[in-house]
Amino acid sequence: MSFLAGLRLPVFAAPMFLVSGPELVIAAARAGIIGAFPNNNVRTSQDYGEWLRRISDALGPHGASGALPWAANLITHSTNTRLPGDLEQVRRFRPPIVITSLGSPRPVMETVHGYGGLVFADVIDLRLARKAAEAGVDGLVCVCAGAGGHTGRLSPFAFVSAVRACFDGYIVAGGGIADGWGIAGALAAGADFVYMGTRFLATEESIAAEAHKRMVADCGIGDLLVSDAITGTPASWLVPSLVQCGLDPANLPSPRERVYDSGRSKETRRWKDVWSAGQGLGAVRDIAPVAQVVDGLEDEFRAARTRFLALGRA
């Protein structure tokens, strides 16, 4: 798609629970990357449609000359009873890219392809990658070890290589990538784009709690714990946030269920006050505007590219 070729950097500001909203998506797109947000950051399908409308109005309708690319994220797990209503809002406001999570992309394919949009599916292993490819997706998001939130277990180098051997669509690599050097490394390994969440969590446009942003800026890679105790799916959590919620990181409870219903009240979700981050949090040193973060990423990416080219001439 030509609108992807015009990006300043091949980066998705990854959709993050209770972090990504319209302001972050719009700022990311205006800075030259792709912003995204998840549907479970709002309570109802009507609210979801309002966010889609705000973003579309700010960035231009899909297919219009000069419109900027952005992405909506939909949870397609079978427990998400709100999916039909959210998908109707997607049909109305036509986000250029729809990223599916925690379930098959099949429920969204007809709607999104019907208006000329692209479908990307996030996957954590080769089995799921093959199933998504068979469903006809345009891109695969390889969620690898080091990712924040619901994380993967595979090395991005091994995973991207394996997916590239059996899939000829777009490949996005995510997991611990937080600077321009990581962007260059992922592209050299065969990815077309990178997923970058934690780097954009501590931005002024993020809707994350200020204390969450500050914790990300203050913590390092040793402050993370991967556990399925909170949501039923392995995820990367900030240890200080577990402690402040009265949980013992060394003795977390067993998960009772896996429910990803976007219509459930945030107040009843066990993970609302437990904060997540990925292994790239060491690159986050302060809370900054999205545009400033992207400026720094571009400088680092150019430096990495220069170094790589120099090595090839040695």
Automatic annotation (TrEMBL):
Keywords associated with the record: Flavoprotein, FMN, Monooxygenase, Oxidoreductase
Gene3D superfamilies: Aldolase class I
One term of GO molecular function: nitronate monooxygenase activity
InterPro entries, per the entry: Aldolase_TIM (IPR013785), NMO (IPR004136)
Keyword Flavoprotein included in the entry's annotation: yes
Family: Belongs to the nitronate monooxygenase family. NMO class I subfamily.
Protein name: Nitronate monooxygenase
The species this protein was found in: Pigmentiphaga kullae
Domain of life (superkingdom): Bacteria
Keyword hit for Oxidoreductase: yes
Cross-referenced PANTHER family: BLR1330 PROTEIN (PTHR42747:SF4), NITRONATE MONOOXYGENASE-RELATED (PTHR42747)
